Amino acid sequence: MGYGLPAAIAGKLRCPEKEVICFAGDGCFQMTMQEFGTAVQAGAKIIVLLIDNGVYGTIRMHQERDYPDRISGTALRNPDFAAIARAYGAHAETVNETSEFDAAYERAVESEKTALIHIKTDPEASTPALTLTSIRGKS
Ligand SMILES: Cc1ncc(C[n+]2csc(CCOP(=O)(O)OP(=O)(O)O)c2C)c(N)n1
Ligand SMILES: [Mg+2]
């Protein structure tokens, strides 16, 4: 966790002709998000796709499955990530519906700036096939 953003910056600086995309969970991104400022400062025009489900979802999945009565420390009180990215001088927007994504991605590419798309998802969507509720107590 936290590796994707600095790795994407280094990759983009090494190969500026390539589209470099960082996929990060909200928990992952918060481990090294100060490096977003480094990306803007260094002119590394990466695109960050930040998947914000408001939880350390992978850990929550284990808690729900094995310790459903002892959920602890997995909720995240997140900032407005798009606002933070804009404050750094980047292009940023928030996507709330799948149907909004394609156009948002195109705008990120066309901005020719360091960019971040803040993608809000439902914490219930633990995996494409399973909900948190369906996992609960099923160890
Ligand atoms: C540096 C580090 N700390 C802790 C972990 C354990 N860990 C694995 S997944 C995870 C939660 C990830 O949360 P998030 O980035 O929000 O992604 P999600 O699972 O919600 O998609 C944690 C804490 C790790 N892999 N690396
Ligand atoms: Mg998460």
Description:
It is a single chain. The chain has 139 residues and is α/β, with parallel strands linked by helices. It has one domain: Thiamin diphosphate (ThDP)-binding fold, Pyr/PP domains (Rossmann fold, 3-Layer(aba) Sandwich). The chain is built from seven helices and four strands, in the order αβααβααβαβα. It has helices at 4-14, 26-32, 35-42, 57-66, 81-87, 101-111, 132-135, and strands spanning 21-25, 47-52, 91-95, 115-120. The chain has a four-stranded parallel β-sheet, with helices on both faces. Helix 6 (101-111) links the parallel strand 3 (91-95) and strand 4 (115-120). Helix 1 (4-14) runs parallel beside helix 3. The relative contact order is 0.18.
Give the structure's gist in a few sentences.
With 139 residues, the protein is an alpha/beta fold. The chain has helices at 4-14, 26-32, 35-42, 57-66, 81-87, 101-111, 132-135; strands spanning 21-25, 47-52, 91-95, 115-120.
- Look at the helices and sheets and give the structural class: alpha/beta
- As a percent range, the share of helical residues equals 40-55%
Shape field = elongated
CATH superfamily: Thiamin diphosphate (ThDP)-binding fold, Pyr/PP domains
How many separate domains?
Answer: 1
Q: How would a crystallographer describe the biggest sheet?
A: 4 strands, parallel
Provide the CATH top-level class: Alpha Beta
Strand content: 15-25%
Please identify, by name, the CATH architecture.
3-Layer(aba) Sandwich
